[in-house]
């Protein structure tokens, strides 16, 4: 649920910089970004002066607000991606993009102690085994092999992969402008009172526990995060909800639902792996234990992904069926709720 494959940089023009070409101005202002790259961004329409796209030759004016979208292709630059024969559930693929239905338990990208056995290793193998030139062309500049957005290890569902630089830039822009849509299904603890709502609360790294994230209601810390939710089904002590992401922060749904008092079911990181609602009798405790066994991870699945194709501009809507563990979990709660 993470989409930080780009940076949005804004710079206001000072008097002494007036009449410089915008590509030279930005080259001077941004570290480790070449003038050639800036010109490429301009050709794609991703350099703006006062919210209007401009050419790289544009002469900047005093107090112009210049914006540029930088695609993060240099993260862990020295990390070598080794192709590994890991099965992929590819639900869509053409010369420009690939959509994957990721299973729970699969780490998306090497790093933080997980340097093999990841989704990126599997994608590299797919390109190699199908003689797809994407591995040699894109891999030389982007060791994330076109990954546009990311997903937690134990979250399942849809991910989009760009197969060339222009496609990645285009798709990243769609996520930034919120024209791409991601919909998740989640089972949360408690009876969510409102049928639908919006959670707006900044999210940032927890200073007391670097593994987890936390909310910052005062907006002075963290990054803006917006989640829209809708109740789908109520089970008394738990609720099945649909979440639409307007932003894509790390652990966004998990942290936002904790913030409003409805931690995801069996979310170990945020305390959802214990009984938070219901009674303490032996029969109920056993039922919950059986539910944890049926779905041994947080109950979150990316079910829908909508975007515009970066080359054909056709509207694409992809769907992923519920995985067996969450499907079984919902069935157990549905049957249990009839007896409450």
Give the arrangement of secondary structure elements.
Elements: E1 6-12, H1 22-29, H2 35-43, E2 47-49, E3 52-53, E4 65-71, E5 90-93, E6 97-102, H3 119-129, H4 134-138, E7 156-162, H5 165-176, E8 181-189, E9 196-200, E10 202-205, E11 213-216, E12 226-234, E13 238-245, H6 252-259, H7 282-294, E14 300-308, E15 315-319, H8 324-337
Parallel strand pairs: 7-14
Antiparallel strand pairs: 1-4, 2-3, 2-4, 5-6, 6-7, 8-13, 8-14, 9-12, 10-11, 12-13, 14-15
Helix pairs in contact: 1-2
Q: So, the CATH homologous superfamily of the largest domain?
A: Pseudouridine synthase
Query: How many runs of DSSP E, i.e. beta strands?
Result: 15
- Per the CATH scheme, the topology name of the largest domain is Pseudouridine synthase
Multimeric state of these chains?
single chain
Which CATH-level-2 architecture of the largest domain?
2-Layer Sandwich
Give the CA-CA distance, first to last residue.
34 Å
C-alpha Rg (nearest Å): 22 Å
Largest sheet, strands/sense/barrel: 9 strands, mixed
Total separate domains? 3
Structure description:
With 340 residues, this protein is α+β, with helices and mostly antiparallel strands. It folds into three domains: 6-71, RNA-binding S4 domain (Structural Genomics Hypothetical 15.5 Kd Protein In mrcA-pckA Intergenic Region, Chain A, Roll); 90-177, 2-Layer Sandwich (Pseudouridine synthase), CATH 3.30.2350; 182-337, Pseudouridine synthase, CATH 3.30.2350.10. The protein has eight helices and 15 strands. The strands form three sheets. Strands 5, 6, 7, 8, 9, 12, 13, 14 and 15 form a nine-stranded mixed beta sheet that branches. Strands 1-4-2-3 form a four-stranded antiparallel beta sheet. A hairpin with a 6-residue loop joins strand 14 (300-308) and strand 15. Helix 1 (22-29) packs across helix 2. The radius of gyration is 22 Å and the shape is globular. The two termini are 34 Å apart. 38% of the residues are buried. The mean pLDDT is 89.
């Amino acid at each position: 649920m993470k989409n930080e494959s780009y940076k949005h940089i804004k710079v206001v023009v000072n008097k002494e910089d007036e009449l410089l070409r915008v590509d030279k101005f930005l080259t001077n202002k941004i570290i480790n970004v070449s003038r050639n790259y800036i010109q490429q961004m301009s050709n794609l329409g991703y350099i703006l002066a006062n919210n209007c796209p401009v050419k790289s030759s544009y002469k900047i004016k005093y107090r112009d607000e210049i914006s540029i979208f930088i695609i993060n292709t240099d993260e862990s630059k020295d990390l070598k991606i080794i192709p590994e024969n890991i099965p992929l559930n590819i639900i869509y693929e053409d010369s420009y993009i690939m959509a994957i239905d990721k299973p729970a338990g699969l780490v998306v990208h090497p790093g933080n102690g997980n340097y093999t056995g990841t989704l990126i290793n599997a994608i590299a193998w797919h390109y190699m085994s199908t003689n797809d030139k994407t591995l040699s062309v894109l891999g030389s500049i982007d060791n994330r092999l076109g990954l546009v957005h990311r997903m937690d290890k134990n979250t399942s569902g849809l991910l989009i992969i760009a197969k060339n630089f222009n496609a990645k830039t285009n798709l990243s822009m769609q996520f930034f402008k919120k024209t791409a849509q991601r919909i998740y299904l989640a089972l949360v603890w408690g009876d969510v009172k409102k049928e639908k709502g919006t959670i707006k609360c900044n999210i940032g790294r927890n200073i007391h526990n670097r593994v987890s994230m936390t909310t910052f209601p005062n907006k002075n810390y963290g990054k803006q995060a917006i989640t829209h939710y809708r109740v789908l089904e109520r089970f008394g002590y738990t609720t099945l909800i649909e979440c639409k992401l307007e932003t894509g922060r790390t652990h966004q749904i998990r942290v936002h639902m904790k913030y409003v008092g409805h931690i995801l079911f069996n979310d170990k990181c945020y305390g959802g792996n214990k009984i938070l609602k219901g009674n303490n009798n032996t029969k109920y405790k056993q039922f919950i234990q059986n539910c944890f066994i049926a779905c041994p991870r947080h109950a979150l699945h990316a079910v829908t992904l909508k975007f515009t194709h970066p080359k054909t501009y056709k509207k694409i809507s992809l769907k992923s069926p519920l995985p067996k563990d969450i499907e079984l979990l919902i069935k157990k709660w549905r049957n249990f709720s009839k007896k409450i």
